[in-house]
């Protein structure tokens, strides 16, 4: 019987989705370890793209996620300085094309819906306020040190350890150390403010309130900067995220990813943007300004070591410019559960072999998505006046001819490749071939039901 141990990192979407997907496949021993005392109401807005919605629906949680999310009508791109509309991309056709509308919502709603789904599964046990220490053994059965906040540490042994512990993954670091490798942190030179304004804060301004009551995602673009905003939480919160040159973190290099921001500096950074942007930023309470450093890691040559595997941001942190970070983690979860469900037995060599199949099924798609997000960010965030003017002309051109867009998120061809791809159908199509390529023995058609 496989005893599956997962590490869940706040907000834990990848870990929670993996646990739930495994339970849906019939596995009975799944443990989640989370360092925080509870999940809380943390984070900000999130893109709920059709490729993620399709998986969440199969897991039985999409209805709960969508309840207070907002279906996007259009992506509207405006020149930051003048507020002039450069182009709009219709998004109200997503459901007819891909089976699900493109929604935007709050990260906490997604996390809580996944956690509620996990709570309904008796196979899943969640251990809050318990951080993971050293990985003690890697094979034939992995073991680790679990360190509860208020009691003595203890050893956990399992058949499979999944490190879904985020961009600062301890499992990844331990794996690379064991392999004699390092994953260099890459500073993008970009930082972001993340802001949420309530309906009450916008109530006195009819123009801003109209943005909250609409269904559009608005992107204001300028030289080296952008601001993207949309309504979430049943249109009770207007979510705003910016991208600008990293000055605060670059001036004081450290491993820190977040810092308390200055409202004055934030307003100065966007001082040349149009009046609606100025009015939005003026409403931000001075003590609620936080700035995030946008960092990624060099690509890993492998996500697996023995019977330990990485998932989500632990192995492929992604810039936010195409809204696929969480979606790719959820896709990882779905694929990992689907290939594990095809295990012929619980022998260590079989587990290692199926993990190689998972890696092969996911690495190329994820690498493409990470590169796409990076390229989209570079295209949008043209730094000098001439380059940003050329970008604006390209936006205007694609509005007339439906050609390629600098904003790859709104590009129809990109949407087709991202939203129209069904990872579970891909497992059904390719698993047998990849399994045969990964080792000498053939897959057992009956699957792992004798293990349950």
Please provide the count of β strands: 20
Radius of gyration: 22 Å
What proportion of the residues is helical, as a percent range? 25-40%
Could you name the CATH homologous superfamily of the domain at 4-43 and 108-184 and 299-378 and 415-451?
A: FAD/NAD(P)-binding domain
Supply the number of helical segments. Answer: 16
CATH architecture of the domain at 4-43 and 108-184 and 299-378 and 415-451: 3-Layer(bba) Sandwich
Largest sheet: 8 strands, mixed
Q: Identify the CATH class of the domain at 4-43 and 108-184 and 299-378 and 415-451.
A: Alpha Beta
In order across it, which strands form the biggest sheet?
Answer: 6-5-14-15-16-13-18-17
Distance between the termini: 6 Å
Mean pLDDT: 89
Write structural notes for this entry:
β5 and β6 form a beta hairpin. The protein is built from 16 helices and 20 strands. It has 452 residues and is α+β, with helices and mostly antiparallel strands. The strands form four sheets. An eight-stranded mixed beta sheet has the order 6-5-14-15-16-13-18-17, sandwiched between helices.
Pick out its properties.
452 residues; FAD/NAD(P)-binding domain; 20 strands; globular; 25% strand; alpha+beta; 16 helices; 8-stranded mixed beta sheet; disordered C terminus
A few lines on this structure:
By secondary structure, the protein is α+β, with helices and mostly antiparallel strands. The chain has 16 helices and 20 strands.
């Amino acid at each position: 019987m496989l005893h599956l141990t997962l590490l869940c990192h706040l907000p834990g979407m990848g870990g929670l989705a993996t646990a739930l997907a495994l339970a849906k496949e019939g596995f009975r021993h799944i443990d989640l370890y989370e360092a925080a005392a509870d999940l809380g109401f943390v984070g900000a807005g999130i893109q709920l793209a059709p490729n993620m919605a399709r998986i969440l629906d199969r897991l039985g949680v999409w209805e709960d996620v969508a309840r207070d999310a907002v279906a996007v009508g259009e992506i509207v791109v405006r020149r930051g300085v003048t507020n002039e509309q450069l182009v709009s991309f219709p998004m109200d056709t997503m459901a007819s094309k891909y089976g699900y509308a493109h929604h935007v919502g709050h990260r906490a709603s997604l996390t809580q819906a996944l956690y509620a789904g996990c709570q309904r599964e008796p196979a899943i046990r969640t251990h809050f306020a318990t951080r993971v220490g050293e990985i003690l053994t890697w094979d034939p059965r992995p073991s680790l040190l679990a360190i509860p906040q208020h009691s003595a540490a203890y050893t956990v042994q399992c058949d499979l350890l999944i490190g879904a512990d985020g961009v600062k993954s301890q499992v990844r670091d331990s794996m690379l150390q064991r392999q004699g490798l390092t994953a260099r942190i890459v500073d993008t030179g970009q930082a972001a403010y993340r802001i949420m304004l309530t309906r009450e804060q916008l109530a006195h301004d009819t123009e801003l309130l109209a943005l909250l009551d609409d269904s559009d995602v608005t992107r204001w673009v300028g030289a080296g900067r952008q601001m993207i905003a949309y309504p979430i939480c049943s249109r009770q919160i207007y979510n705003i995220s910016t991208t600008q040159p990293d000055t605060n973190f670059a001036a004081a290099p450290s491993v820190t990813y977040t810092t308390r921001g200055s409202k004055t500096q934030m307003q100065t950074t966007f001082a040349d943007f149009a009046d609606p942007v100025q009015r939005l930023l003026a409403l931000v309470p001075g003590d609620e300004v936080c700035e995030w450093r946008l960092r990624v890691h060099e690509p890993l040559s492998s996500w697996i070591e023995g019977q330990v595997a990485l998932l989500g941001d632990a192995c492929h942190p992604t810039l936010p410019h195409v809204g696929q970070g969480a979606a790719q983690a959820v896709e990882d979860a779905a694929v990992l559960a689907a290939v594990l469900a095809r295990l012929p037995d619980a022998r260590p060599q079989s587990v290692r072999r199926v993990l190689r199949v998972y890696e092969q099924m996911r690495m190329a798609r994820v690498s493409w998505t990470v590169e796409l997000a990076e390229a989209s960010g570079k295209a949008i965030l043209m730094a000098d006046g001439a380059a940003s003017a050329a970008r604006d002309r390209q936006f205007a051109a694609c509005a007339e001819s439906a050609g390629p867009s600098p904003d790859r998120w709104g590009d129809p061809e990109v949407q087709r490749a991202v939203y129209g791809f069904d990872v579970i159908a891909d497992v059904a199509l390719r698993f047998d071939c990849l399994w045969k390529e990964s080792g000498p023995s053939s897959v057992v058609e009956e699957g792992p039901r004798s293990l349950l």
